[in-house]
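We emphasize that the prediction below concerns an isolated chain of 466 residues; any contacts that depend on oligomerization or on bound cofactors are therefore not represented. The input was used exactly as deposited, without trimming of termini.
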Amino acid sequence: MLADWLKVFRKKKRAATPGQVLELLVLEGEDAGDNFTIDANNIAITRGTSRSDQQDAILLRDPTVSGQQAMIRRTDDTTVIEHNRGATNPTLVNGRAITSSPIGPGDKIQIGRVILEVRARKGFTLRTLKELSVEQEPETDASEQFVGEATEARPATFLEYSLVVVDGIEGAEGEQIWLEPPSCFIGRDPSSAVHIDVGAVSRRHAEIVWEADQIFVVHHSSVNQTFVNGVAVSDRVEALPGDEIKLADCVVLRLDHQSPESVASREPPVPRPGPDPNQTSLRVRMEEKFARDREIEEKFAVHGSFLDVDVAGSYLMKAESNRPEFIIVSFERWRAWITVVIEEFDGMVLNSNGDELMCFFESTARCVDCGRSILDRLDAFNDEQNALPSPFRLRIGIHTGSSLVDKKRGVAYSEVLDIAGHLQKDANENGILISESTFRALPEEAPFEPAGQLEREKIATYRMIL
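Result of the prediction step, given as a token string:
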């Protein structure tokens, strides 16, 4: 559970120390003072208004930022920014126009009138918190990880992936096509590693590419589309076991993953006798779906309370000041102050999205107490640290529930975080709005009253009594 993961880094004997978290601080432009945590492998920089449910993009209001300006791509070793060729204004790193450039602490990114500074802090993001729970496998002699002569050896983990034909190739449903790194082309060209002899499929339709322990589907065809789980791939997208890859409107392949032991002992596929696969495919697929759903629930379900805090009316606060340095200093002080209060109540600041922070707590009661303490101390913060004409006014939303988390890849599949953000947006200024699941975890005397439902989720809410 997520609560257990917190204990991992709290206990020194486990040697879990905070790592480096990269963030982008907006120095100039309409969003000056906003801060964005780089907490995904692929993040788009685009124009728009930041919001809680936008986890894979940095949204900037400034009109000099294009709709698809750039991409930030992160690996274990580097973080790179890539300029989108269709963007109106260039992307500059330290004053130089780039197509692709690594970035690190101290670098400055300029897009039109917007200047962002790359910063680093010690700590954990939601992603790295999950990764701490992954058990380290014992080191193995390198010779044990290879089979055959040295010139033919490959790491066993590279041999674990295959494509299973789901639909669109007559008589081949269920057949397994093994994949080998570093890349495999899919298409009608006979030289393709995955040869699909179907007229609607392009000669070089798509490609499977390995990057460290991740696999990506890359679209190549200029005529026919590639889809992953029903979503069109414009460039490339990460794929996970169980994902379905559709070529044009006819061929469906499923990415499969097996253990190294089963891979090492596999034999060439032989035709399976029995009834027409088309007559049994629905039953087989439903059985597979049932087994996958049960495995996901057993292995990846975690529980926790999430607090989302946002500055109400921040855009107008900034517009009232003609001193960018006052904006940046005030919002930096605000984030530092919030972090201190969160940690005082045994919570963690996980992500920054503009002027909004997402935080996690092991204890629901401590989470709510922290929210109340933030509001109780807000006047003192405004008096002593805020350099802007208008005071900081906050909205706080708290939701408690289970998330599905891929601990190996550090990816969450859940509405829990989104609902905390939606509660925050419905909260009164300098108020707290909590979900029913949070309310039921509190003592009976907790000072909250019914406040209706969230419109989208139809979840009962409770408002803090001032």
